[in-house]
Amino acid sequence: MAELADRAGITVRTLRFYRERKLIPPPRREGRIAWYDDSHLTRLRTISALLERGHTLNGIAELAEAFDHGRGVGELLGVGAPTEETPVRLTPEELADHFAGEVTPENLAAAMDLGYLGTDGAEIVHISRRLLDVSAALVREGIPLSSVLEAGRRVREHADALAGLFAGMVLDHGSERDVDRLRPLARSVVEAELSLALDRRLRKEPRRP
N or C of the chain: less Cβ packing under 10 Å? Predict the structure, then answer.
């Protein structure tokens, strides 16, 4: 325990307090000896970094519980990685920096339920670099992360329906080999229709001051 505390840059008393609050997992025991490993050191460094970013110990404890019970990266990615999207590996501190003040246990659970986030040891995996960057940009524009995640959930429903429409069209009138060639065409149709829909909506709604 003294060695772990020294490497983490904290006191043994602080380490005991973290253990009592269940902020770190229990050590592996062999008889009367308690063994700590790199995962404990990583968790302690994460706690320190999140405290520096303004998170409370109660909030960190809830985040740690969400991380520990989150879906693993294997379950998140399924049989294989996305064909066009690039997954992103993040530390909890990096995730907090992307969404300053918005990484709450509720938002974290919502992102995991949506399938945006999974865990891989001490790291977090986001399913898509593009979705991560867009979500962070929307939050920087003043939109709460909870609203961004709810929009993502609703978009997912429509996207699944659109994917079914285009895939069904190809299977009805082409072959399974045509599905990959369908991707850029389907994306162009959706992007054009969304752009036109935004034009129509913005013309109907008065601009807010």
Answer: C
